[in-house]
Amino acid sequence: MIKVLVSGAYGRMGQAVVKAVLEDEELELVGAVDIVGEGDAGEVVGFGKCDVNYTRDLVTTINETHPQVMVDFTIPDVVFENASVAIKNKVAPVIGTTGLSDEQKKELEKLSKENDTPVFIAPNFAIGAVLMMQMAKQAAKYMPEVEIIELHHDKKLDAPSGTALQTAALISEVRKAHIQGNPNEKEKVAGARGADVDGMHIHSVRLPGYVAHQEVIFGGLGQTLTIRHDSLNRESFMPGVCLAAKQILGHKGLIIGLDKFMD
């Protein structure tokens, strides 16, 4: 049994993670940390009493429960500090919060090496989203004209999404950077063509009703190809979260992307 602490355990994603960990026979929930939330974490998520109560202080909870893995779904301003604390205490962070800067990632990688404790960051935990990104990379070899549309709920803080940026990064590995569209095009409203990444345009939609969705549209002579993934609820991320919690202890350093744990 791998001992797991969930940080941000009272949020919507956090509660889904708590329930998923409790239901997994290979994982043991030992801590549930959040600045809000009271009572038994299992009862709050509808699992039943599990004798793990919500706590407020991460360091104290780590010292008292001795987790091996910390799953963190907090916010960008908090996750870096949480991950740093975890690594220094030999707890492997599994990070689902996007928005970390390149400098913060480098610092986490440095801490990981210094403390011989792996750290994992996933732009997206949905297995279908990972497959979508891999398929997009393959398609870009043959259809390099591409735009990305990502759609998320209106509470999401960062844009573009981590998934969109990771998709663009993967496509850039096989696609030479170039300007797309009419070289003389002009935006009548600033931002109308979206963000520009190596000539690819990324468009971010934020509306209530969405969870997490992305389509990658390729255009070619007389044809288009659309690869789309939809997460219809937060449970779609849970198999990937559990997979990461089980796999991370067998790795070293900074690992980015669920594909590293998939065959």
Which descriptors would you attach to this protein?
263 residues; alpha/beta; Rossmann fold; Dihydrodipicolinate Reductase, domain 2; 8 helices; elongated
For the record, the count of structural domains works out to 2
Strand order of the largest sheet: 3-2-1-4-5-6-12
Q: Could you tell me how far the N terminus lies from the C terminus, measured between alpha carbons in angstroms? A: 22 Å
Report the major sheet: 7 strands, parallel
Q: Please give the share of residues in helix.
A: 25-40%
Secondary-structure element order, as H and E? EHEHEHEHEHEHEHEEEEHE
**Overall SS class:** alpha/beta
Rg (CA only)? 20 Å
Could you tell me the number of beta strands? 12
Q: For this structure, what is the CATH class of the largest domain?
A: Alpha Beta
Spell out the CATH superfamily of the largest domain.
Answer: NAD(P)-binding Rossmann-like Domain
**Shape estimate:** elongated
Q: Quote the beta fraction.
A: 15-25%
**CATH architecture classification of the largest domain:** 3-Layer(aba) Sandwich
